[in-house]
Amino acid sequence: MKANEFVIEMGNKPGELAKVCDVLGSNQINIKAITMDRQGGQTFVRILVDKNDKAREALESKDTIFTENEVIVKTISDKPNALTDVARKLGAAGVNIDAIYLLNRGGDKVNIVFALDNPQKGADVLKD
Question: pTM score, two decimals?
C-alpha cells in the first residue's frame, strides 16, 4: 500500500518535537507513525498522519521546513526473518531502503513503512 510521509527538519534543542506535535494536534491531525533521528546538527522527524492535505497546510502555515514523500506500507509476518525476506527482495531488484519504521502490529502481523529510493518499483516488487 502506498502512503505519504512528511519529513520535517527541526532544530536540535529541547521542545522542538512538541512544537511540531502542537501544530498537528491543534489542527486535529493524528500521527499514525513517527520516527526521529539526528544527522549532524539537524534533527529529522518522519511521520505518517491521518490527514495529508490538512497536515501540509498546517506545516506550511508555520513555515515548517519539510518534504513530502511517497512511501510503501507492507504487512509482514511478525516472526524471525520476515523482514529479511522483504529486504532481500528489494535489494535484488536494486531498490534502496532510505528509512524504515513501524506503523503498527497486531496478532501475528506487523505493518512497516518503507521509504525507498524508487517507491513505484518497490511497490511492484512487494506486491502480494
Answer: 0.88
